[in-house]
Amino acid sequence: MMIDSLISKLKEAREREDIDPADLDEILGVGPGWIETFEAGKTTPTVDFILAIIRSLGMDIADVFKDIDKSTAKSILSRSIEVENKKSHGVKGAEMRFRYNSYLAKVFIPSANEETFEKVKKTFRDNLGAGRKTEAVVEAFMQLVSLWPRANPSDIWWFMMQRLYSDPYFHPATEAHRDFGQSWKRTAGWALERIIVEHYRERLLKSDIEIGIFRREQVTEFLEAMKLNFHAEAHKADILLLDTSGRTKQCFGVAHVKASIAERRQNDQSFSSALLSKNFYSPFVTMDCKSAPSSKPHNKGEFGLPLDDADDRRGDKRKEFEEEGYYSGCYSFNSNTIPTPVGQKATARIFVINFQTADDAFTKGAVAARNRLHRG
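^ that's the sequence the OP posted. Answer follows.
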């Protein structure tokens, strides 16, 4: 049986049940227009999607698939991610399953659960369906790190958010032609900056510091007032930190935000060095995402081992902070990142932080940098 015959059979069943295509979209939790797109033969549904339609219409699975051939089965791919409640070593959480290259990967997320994931996923899908891509990522991520306090934020970002966003079924069917891998790279950058601003805004305001993403003209004005010995293009200033304690706001720092250490960090190093030469704050904020494809991937990050008394096995990325000091410090939201050991001398330190509190090393560094500027 060819795929068009299968879709025709599902369409006939929907019409018999007198269910509108848009209503079935809503029942299935997908973006608007997918049922119409399938039934028009414009794209092929996955096995999971077909099974969901069958269950929703009360059809008999054996009857639907009794004539299906192997070539048709191979043309139908699986969905992006599944979450199931589990326990690991006595700890409650959920197992996340997804395709990772040729592997069926499994990652345990402590304090996670299937029920909250489904609710967040629906909100995520609704936002994408309305064209609010950046807002969808920001809202879903902030909800998940709040609902799952013991989860590694970097795991949620690296394993979950990327795959949810790249699943075409969460977007309107009219966007089925898009390369969502490329779209994720752009949207994720904007979303991560927004997440950092939202996380720290209220806490920093208590210390007369404003953190924000500003219009290009405003950024240009603030950078010119800093009189850097470097031509800093406004679009390279991801997030500004402003001192609001005086009559006028003054920029005293720029936060460089990247999902991974390798991501364009060298483009920011000259800018950061110019900031540091004037005693401004120049933190590097990251999810420190990195893992190798496997059935049980480990999001180990990119820093590797710290300095050991007996042997220095540090990699170049760690040394760029601890020895070369291109930035004020590195603030990682990956709980697997190994921070700079207490007592070790370092030009700039690596810190591990999370989204459970904004009263952390990043905030302390910002307040100290603003106070140094006043003393200077």
